[in-house]
Queue: 2 jobs
Job 1
Amino acid sequence: MPEGHTLHRIGRELTDAFAGTAPAVTSPQGRFAESAAILDGRPFERAWAHGKLLFVEIGGQTVHIHLGLIGKLAVHATDGAEPAVQGAVRLRLLNERYVADLRGPMVCTLVTPVEVDALVARQGPDPLQPSAEPTRAWERIHRSGKSIAELMMDQSVIAGVGNIYRCEVLWRQRVNPAYAGRRIKRGTVEAMWHDLVRLMHVGVHTGRIITVEEDVADAERDIAQGALKPAYDRPNYVYQRDGQPCPRCGARIRTRVVAGRNLFWCGGCQRRT
Ligand SMILES: [Zn+2]
């Protein structure tokens, strides 16, 4: 499943490709055809994300998209001609220079402004929103008897975090993933939050989940200089490394399903509350 940085990146790509134009909007597969007809030829305003929710504003209307497990939204430059439709395309946007195809989403539907507000209100704070801060996340974690590993996958606690960021941030901050939320100190939640802000910011700019500190620092410097390199390919610390030694303490990395996904952690050095 895409993590939040992917949705923010798609929002930027759509806005860059279509803002200020009036794209043709179609549903080649047919399941979004009635709504597409309402949007067709209207001015594209912007696309934006909150966590894993994507909103596309066209002609005063808003489309809510959730990619779910298998959905994909790809934006490509064209040579001016409309590319042939490949597979089941739920939604296609086309202007003179770009095409965007949405395939296999869990949700693709027109929503009212009230529904947009309600959808966003059910989400926790999103580390990629510039004004977001972790107080609401802390309040929910602090009141919960669920494990911090489970809470980190709950989009109403922190929006946009998926399994890779969960595993890697818990390891980076030395947090024991099995501890109940109410045992975790406020300073620890704030440290995890600021780590997520850093890592997910790098993720939006590079299009990749980069979690190893040397690569994160390199990518941050390159982003600031506007010169990304096709590197940053050190493996993760613990994600999908079960059975291997922990890069920090040498203990064996473990795995177990928590909140429906394989959690990876080190039983040796992740003790922090
Ligand atoms: Zn360790």
Job 2
Amino acid sequence: MSGMSTTENSPESPQEPDSSRAAHRGRPLQTEFNDGRDYPRLGSFSFRRGTLTDNQENTWDENWPHLGRVLDENPVTADDQVIDLDDWFGRTGHDTIVEIGSGTGTSTAAMAPLETDHNIVAVEIYRPGLAKLLGSVVRGGITNVRMVKGDGVEVLQRMFAPCSLAGVRVYFPDPWPKARHHKRRIIQTGTLHLIASRLKPGGILHVATDHADYAEWIDELVNVEDDLEYLGWPDDPAVRDETVPVLTDRQIITKFEGKGLDKEHVIREYLWRRR
Ligand SMILES: C[S@@+](CC[C@H](N)C(=O)[O-])C[C@H]1O[C@@H](n2cnc3c(N)ncnc32)[C@H](O)[C@@H]1O
């Protein structure tokens, strides 16, 4: 991916996909992946390993087993991975929001303490980013955040039941600016359909981007999914609070957003409600 994962910040940048069958290493090919439709599986990418500091490794070893999960990509064992959210969060009756591509979790950790009634699941493919969020969660005593390592699209499909989520967040997704890579963009017809299927009626999809071309791309897609009612972006936070039942103020300018703002990029935000 081209944001965090292809900048100098990411030691885990994806390489050009190998289109051969061998590259799938026994995993099912994309055509067997239903809801994501034409979204290319990240399983066809190889990733450079990111490194953690000793401190992060210790925090990881101690806390990941109860606060984190890894998507099982093995087609043989991966069948029944749907998360029992009440069990994982140790409480019942709380709605869940999934953030796809949480990066280093700066906004995740800033928002979660303001939405303690919600379970927050941050999904990221970049382990050092998850390690940073894990550190913030542990140090900050944040109790309503859990993490999944894996491709957010596959995680949504395999680990969350239909109609189970109150919200899905996609903040500053990798823009994949080259035309031949547009099919890798997270926001596209098939993934909007998948997201809609995982949201419960009234659930909210919130997307933000600073990338003008990606924004134009999203503009074309705002009404493509019948189950998602496009709400636009009311600039007034009070109006947003009245319109949607989840927190929409991202609280903090992340490094990626800051870089965009430095280049005088315009931040575009989008909200949809599951019908
Ligand atoms: C540009 S960064 C933005 C990070 C963060 N949301 C922020 O605003 O600072 C995009 C992030 O999405 C992650 N990412 C890209 N594709 C993903 C996918 N399919 N599933 C999960 N994470 C993904 C990348 O590793 C990267 O950390």
